[in-house]
User: What shape does this take?
Amino acid sequence: MTLGERLTQARTAKQLTTQQVADELGIARSTYTGYETEYREPDTKTLIRLAEMYEVSLDWLLTGKSGDDLPTLPPEEREFLTWVKNHLTGTFFYDFSKSPSTRKKEMMRGLRLIYELEKGRKPGQKQGE
Assistant: This one.
């Protein structure tokens, strides 16, 4: 699927017309239609605005792949990473991204331990019960 096809798919999924999108972007309808037909290429700023408008990632918009696509990972690993994504705050990710690789490995081992403990716990069960 091409960028133009993904733009069309995302727009129709939001039930928007090309005119509505063009108005939101502050451009002519013909300019936006050119993006979908691949007669024109949107600049970076426009791509960012489109991704936000359509509530899709830039990665998906440009390549058709998503950061959530983890096709090569085993289901257990995918489940763990989803848990990490859903249970950690931005502070952790900031610290994680600034850490050396050895520290990152230690942090992930700790997270996996917490995850395994949580996974075995019944809903509403408190730690130590």
Notes: The chain has eight helices and no strands. The radius of gyration is 21 Å. Helices lie at 3-13, 18-25, 29-37, 44-54, 58-63, 75-87, 90-98, 101-119.
